[in-house]
Amino acid sequence: MNKSSMAQGDEGEERWHHGINPSFQEADFFIFGKLINNMQKKRVLSGIRATGRLHLGNYLGAVKGMLALQNDPDYETYYMVADLHSINTPYEPKELAKQTREVILDYLAAGIDPQKSTIFIQSQISEHVELSYLFSTVISVARTFHLPTYKEKVKLQPENVNMALLYYPILMAADILIYKANAVPVGDDQLPHLEIAREVTRKMNSKYGLDFPEPEQFKTKGHKIPSLLGEGKMSKSVEGSYINLTDDLKTIKEKLAKVPTDEGKGDKVPTRGGVATLLSLVDLFEGEKRKEEYEKAYLNSGIHYKDLKEKLAEVIHEELVPIQKKRSFFEKDMNKVDRILVEGAEKARKTAKTTLAEVRKAMGIA
Length: 366
Ligand code: ATP
Ligand code: MG
Known about the structure:
CATH class of the largest domain: Alpha Beta
Number of helices: 15
CATH architecture of the largest domain: 3-Layer(aba) Sandwich
Strand content: 5-15%
Bound molecules: adenosine-5'-triphosphate, magnesium ion
Order of helices and strands: HHEHEHHEHHHHEHEHHHHH
């Protein structure tokens, strides 16, 4: 986007806010200018399943990227709670609405700002589901069967291999493309799904002459946070794998204390297992230099894990305190949270309807 036109737009906004009433023609011009700006902005979509409170993996791998793009004037950001994706694994219907609100509270607490981002609940925009059905016509069954994300779930929950699980990437493609999003702040675990969205883009564009952008991951430094258990990634649905954004210092200390370690020294710094998880968290919260010091210690005098864990717990907690304070503020005003969701849904629906109408027309659906 042209930065100088952006600045002019901002000045116009300033005048509105300061109550200097521009003439009708000037206002018209201003609104038109703003429209052009919005049309040229790149779009962003991201979402989190309503399967529990957010953890450090969600925060570092997704939310930090969401914040960076929200605060960049070149982007228009859409952030949802993916409640429809939450029901492809076993869940408690009575708890779903509450779980959805938990994610919204975590978003707001972490700094997702309704003034800057459109915040909404996925299922409230039913156009996502309709678009996903249209998209399902261009992706083969074999393609979805071979996704590592699907295969993992089949292995983990053989008793719950449902159609929605297979359909996950198609619905995710619709989540992204219904907003014509270019950038998707998600962790590495979502890359195979993103690849499906890119394929959908290419196929829909070439078959039906549409203009979907090929969405790309917006990668953060913490794009792949390992589990506290020392195997796999930190996940809401894997007990013992995570530290929540709402955890107090005592809880963080207890969780870190359980991370499996070794004797603290050896010929090669581990790249897997609990020690690797700890070093990765040190890198992210205390900096690369501190991590290198521990790595040197591992090869020489040895690491004293109790001290490492104590210090790490304190630094993590320090970063979480402001988020927790902000969360308690929103928890006391759920009416405000509901208002944010109503406004967010209205805005998201408008964009979603426009895209769906375009696709229906291009596919010959009256
Ligand atoms: P669940 O176990 O219910 O699937 P989850 O912890 O995997 O929960 P999701 O809601 O699936 O969380 O993912 C939300 C976002 O957080 C996605 O962008 C995902 O890529 C990111 N994310 C999840 N876990 C990690 C992780 N360990 N490291 C980095 N990013 C992550
Ligand atoms: Mg997940």
